[in-house]
Design brief:
Number of domains: 4
Structural class: alpha+beta
Shape: globular
CATH class of the largest domain: Mainly Beta
Strand content: 25-35%
Number of helices: 12
CATH topology of the largest domain: Thrombin, subunit H
Length: 475
């Protein structure tokens, strides 16, 4: 069913619902009054989300992802003694089995484009989509992005499919009614209602860009990738995570805002490559102590810790020590909220950054561009007799730092650490930045093998998440 066919019904429902609530409020009298009134119309008696659900539900799908995994089996089962009692089914140290995961998705384009969570389909060998009319279709992955935990799928249905248009989540307010639609626990499509409990939640979640919509609409396992919709029948978020101690809903669920969803879908439709805008600076949390040091009466905004020389932000006049209070009029209270605002900007756009500097308010603007890869990454697997043998290293650059998710632009970083390698045993991991070897600074991948070889003792200095670590290894 085309989108135009159900939008008016959804809008009519929203208007009807609001009118009914206003009538009921008027009948109740002033706030705190004890009068009770008998409903005088059908509209006051029948309050229902059914028109919204009827419009949106056909665009919410079930997703079944199947992957083949090898399950380790004890070598003891190769022993003839165990074979005698347990048979040949165990015959070897490992065996292959099928693993299935269940999730939900939302059709966002009539051509069969579906958005879901990446963790629903990660590593899948086969993805099946079950439509609301019970048709089963094979799905292909158009884009899968770990940093946002979003994936875009494509199905061929032989015609247009019902879909849901998105609405900016910035239009939401705390207290707004929303509906969550998905397939919890595999019981079938289920609708729950609640309110927006909070906006721009940044301290939780599995993604790098954390700015979630929090809702008390019940979200459970299997709801991942499902729709969070407003009462006008538009998608405002993709349900992604819950806070729980039991595995079930406790009324604290989180959805990825529609701005990020739209960014990922646009990338999928334009070639399948997600190019993120580059900030050109590093930021840090503005604590009460730092705020006082900068002459602010309270922490408001995000502190600029460093600016990359020659970046668009640098050329626009952004300086270390500036405080960014808002982007395009939307306040930012921590680095995660700022990262989200930048990540959802289209390339080429010029958002307005409201900056506080020396007691003055400034507005700076610069074009959003991708991060440069200079110097080239020169990805290299180290060899030789030293603790980093078998480890993959790269030259850092703004682009490489963005890819690895680290706040450092220069030096050499570990991009992959092989299983059972010496580096893994010593606790090294991808994203670690190699600062020095035996007191000698490491600046480029070139020559690192020679710097590490022919040593009986290695003193490594590592930067991990902004903290310096020292590791001494004897040969």
């Amino acid at each position: 069913m085309p989108n135009a066919a159900f939008r008016p019904a959804a809008l009519k429902c929203a208007a009807f619902l609001c009118a009914a609530v206003l009538v009921l409020a008027a009948a109740a009298g002033p706030l705190g009054a004890q009068e009770r009134a008998v409903p005088e119309s059908q509209a006051q008696i029948k309050l229902s989300f059914a028109p919204v659900v009827r419009a949106v539900a056909p665009a919410v799908v079930n997703i079944y992802a199947q992957r083949r995994v090898r399950q380790q089996v004890s070598p003891l089962f190769d022993d003839p003694f165990f074979q005698r009692f347990f048979g040949g089914a165990f015959g070897g140290p490992s065996r292959e089995r099928q693993q299935q995961s269940l999730g939900s998705g939302v059709i966002v384009d009539p051509g069969g484009v579906i958005v879901t969570n990446r963790h629903v389909i990660a590593g899948a060998d086969e993805i099946r989509v079950v439509l609301n009319d019970r048709r089963e279709l094979d799905a292909q992955v158009m884009l899968s992005d770990e940093r946002t935990d979003l994936a875009v799928l494509k199905v061929e249905a032989g015609g247009e499919l019902p879909f849901v248009e998105t609405s900016p989540s910035d239009l939401l307010e705390v207290g707004d009614l929303v509906l969550a639609i998905g397939n919890p626990f595999g019981v079938g499509q289920t609708v729950t209602s609640g309110i927006v409990s909070a906006l721009a939640r940044t301290g939780i979640g599995p993604t790098d860009f954390r700015s979630f919509i929090q809702t008390d609409a019940a979200i459970n396992p299997g709801n991942s990738g499902g729709a969070l919709v407003s009462l006008d029948g538009r998608l405002v978020g993709v349900n992604s995570a819950i806070y729980t101690k039991t595995g079930g809903s406790v009324g604290i669920g989180f959805a990825i805002p529609s701005e990020m969803v739209s960014t990922v879908v646009r990338a999928a439709l334009s070639g399948g490559r997600l190019e993120r805008p580059w900030a050109g600076f590093h930021s840090q949390q503005l604590t009460p102590e730092l705020a006082r040091g900068f002459g602010l009466d309270r922490p408001q905004g995000v502190l600029v810790a460093d600016v990359y020389p020659g970046s668009p932000a640098d050329r626009a006049g952004l300086e270390r020590g500036d405080v960014i209070a808002a982007v395009d009029g939307r306040g930012v209270e921590d680095p995660e909220a700022l990262d989200f605002r930048i990540a959802t900007q289209p390339l080429g756009s010029e958002p307005r950054f409201e900056v506080l500097r020396d007691g003055r308010s400034l507005v700076l603007s610069w074009p959003m561009k991708t991060a440069p890869e200079s110097p080239p990454r020169n990805e290299t697997v180290l060899t030789g007799r030293h603790p980093l043998s078998g480890t993959k290293v790269v030259n850092l650059s703004p682009a490489m730092a963005e890819e690895l998710g680290i706040a450092q632009w220069r030096g050499v970083a570990l991009s992959a650490v092989a299983r059972n390698s010496p580096a893994r045993r010593y606790g090294l991991r991808p994203g670690d930045v190699l600062v020095s070897v035996n007191g000698r600074p490491v600046e480029r991948v070139e020559g690192l093998d020679a710097l590490l070889s022919d040593q009986g003792r290695w003193l490594l200095s590592i930067n991990r998440d902004g903290e310096q670590r020292r590791l001494e290894i004897l040969g």
